[in-house]
């Protein structure tokens, strides 16, 4: 008996030693403790003014393309042409499907594959929140910058289409999503033209006009246009990753630049559950709504299996050095602690989205009367597919959850598989990394999974190197202003965006 106990103790001691050795020797990327100071970028009031003017144009996209106010989009096209004449004079310009805009700056070596930068001009509606200051034409770029908010604002400081410049910020719907990227690209390309800088390879800009409602008429058609021309891009750059401030990601004690090397897929299913209708005074044993509730509970209680994909493992390898010891220990010893690690990750909404196909019940409809039993109840469940899961996997999962019930299942919106995963070993990725280090030397740089949808996946037909990243640093409250209230971008962030894209354009082949 003593030998058995001694043997168990010996095994446990050896196990602890192995775990500790693996933790301390695991090759986490080093945290930038002694990073050089961030580059000081002069403020360009003229660039701010041009951007402000673009935010004043309400290029709102709605559910149906026929409902668009195309007058605003015509106005926006005209504004770009008047504001950036050098680009229209020195690039090949093409309109695709009426409002998709494509610019090509010719490089010196036509044998090299071109690079492509994306953005979109459409914005979501601003909502009906109150406006604190309704004064027009506010342009105070020399204001002292206000502190970053700790909570999401309930009201707009300035009207959503005022383009107000105050408090060190540029306010307006689209400031972050995505006119900031669009205008910074136009500014960067203008700089190249002014300086007579000829890149080695062709540089393309492509701007969609319906990204917020699926991109079927904008990005899809532009990608098809490129395909018809036989183009294959060495890199495609779009939105989808940002620089998050220290503490924004639970357990990571560092700023982190998140480069989206893939994005999740999408499937929304409308599930109609059938039962007996009638008057509530004589209800059946099982109502349609009760059956629907059982199915919904199954979907929430038995979600798709979590897993750490190679992309997320690489993310942990890059940021693990800025995490507490226990987190590093779990990452370094997945062979032993993988169930513990997954258990912790799935308890947090943001990290749960990185390791599983998520399930979200979004809509439900029953009867129209308080005393009426509907013979049919319908609800919508949305899945965001993790790379490694397929649309078929999700359909099988739904079938299992609805087993035993009389249901009809209909896919709604645009079902799509998760995107391909782009490599972090390419020139296209390395130039992003070096550009970030120039502007944000203190930030860890890591590949990441973009959990929302972008136009980027539509360009898989013309490139295998697709990266989603916007070079601005914002906190959680500022992130929440996207599609919400009081959207703005700091002047500092906007200046850094311009410099970043200029860096990538100039240094891609260095």
Automatic annotation (TrEMBL):
Family statement drawn from the similarity comment of this UniProt entry: Belongs to the peptidase M20A family.
Residue ranges annotated for the Peptidase M20 dimerisation domain, each copy included: 262-401
InterPro entries found in the cross-reference section: ArgE/DapE_CS, Bact_exopeptidase_dim_dom, Pept_M20A, Peptidase_M20, Peptidase_M20_dimer
A Pfam family this chain is assigned to: Peptidase_M20
GO molecular function: metal ion binding; peptidase activity
GO biological process: proteolysis
SUPFAM superfamilies: Bacterial exopeptidase dimerisation domain, Zn-dependent exopeptidases
Annotated keywords: Hydrolase, Metal-binding, Protease, Zinc
Superkingdom of the source species: Bacteria
The protein's name in its UniProt record: Peptidase
């Amino acid at each position: 008996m003593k030998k058995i106990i001694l043997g168990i103790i010996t095994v446990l001691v050896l196990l602890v030693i192995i775990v500790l050795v693996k933790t301390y020797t695991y090759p986490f990327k080093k945290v930038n403790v002694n990073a050089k100071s961030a580059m000081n970028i002069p403020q360009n009031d003229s660039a701010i003014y041009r951007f402000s003017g673009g935010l004043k144009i309400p290029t709102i996209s709605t559910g149906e393309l026929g409902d668009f106010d195309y007058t605003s989009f015509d106005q926006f096209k005209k504004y770009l042409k008047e504001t950036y004449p050098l680009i229209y004079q020195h690039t090949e310009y093409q309109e695709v499907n009426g409002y998709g805009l494509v610019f090509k700056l010719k490089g010196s070596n036509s044998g090299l594959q071109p690079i492509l930068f994306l953005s979109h001009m459409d914005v979501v509606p601003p909502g009906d929140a109150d406006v604190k200051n309704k004064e027009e034409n506010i342009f105070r770029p020399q204001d002292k910058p206000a502190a970053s908010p700790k909570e999401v604002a309930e009201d707009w400081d300035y009207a959503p289409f005022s383009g107000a410049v105050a408090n060190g910020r540029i306010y307006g719907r689209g400031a972050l999503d995505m006119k900031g990227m669009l205008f910074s690209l136009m500014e960067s390309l203008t700089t190249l033209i002014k300086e007579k800088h000829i890149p080695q390879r062709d540089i393309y800009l492509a701007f969609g006009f319906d990204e917020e409602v699926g991109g079927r008429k904008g990005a899809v058609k532009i990608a098809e246009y490129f395909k018809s021309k036989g183009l294959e891009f060495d890199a495609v750059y779009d939105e989808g990753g940002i620089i998050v401030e220290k503490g924004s990601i639970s357990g990571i004690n560092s700023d982190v630049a998140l480069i989206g090397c893939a994005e999740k897929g999408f499937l929304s299913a409308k599930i109609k559950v059938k039962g007996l209708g009638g008057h509530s005074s004589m209800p059946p044993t099982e109502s349609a709504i009760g059956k629907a509730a059982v199915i919904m509970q199954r979907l929430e209680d038995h979600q798709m299996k979590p897993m750490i994909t190679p992309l997320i493992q690489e993310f942990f390898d890059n940021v693990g050095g800025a995490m507490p010891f226990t987190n590093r220990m779990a990452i370094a010893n997945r062979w032993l602690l993988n169930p513990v690690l997954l258990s912790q990750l799935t308890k947090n909404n943001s990290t749960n989205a990185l390791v599983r196909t998520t399930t979200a019940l979004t809509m439900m409809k029953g009867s129209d009367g308080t005393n009426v039993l509907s013979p049919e109840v319908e609800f919508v469940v949305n899945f965001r597919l993790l790379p490694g899961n397929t649309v078929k996997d999700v359909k099988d999962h739904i079938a299992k959850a609805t087993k035993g019930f009389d249901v009809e299942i209909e896919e709604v919106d645009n079902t799509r598989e998760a995107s391909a995963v782009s490599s972090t070993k390419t020139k296209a990725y390395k130039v992003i990394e070096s550009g970030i280090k120039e502007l944000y030397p203190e930030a860890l740089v890591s590949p990441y999974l973009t959990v929302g949808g972008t136009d980027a996946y539509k360009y898989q037909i013309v490139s295998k190197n697709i990266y989603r990243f916007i070079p601005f640093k914002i906190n959680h409250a500022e992130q929440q202003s996207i599609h919400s209230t009081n959207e703005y971008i700091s002047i500092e962030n906007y200046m850094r965006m311009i410099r970043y894209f200029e860096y990538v354009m100039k240094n891609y082949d260095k």
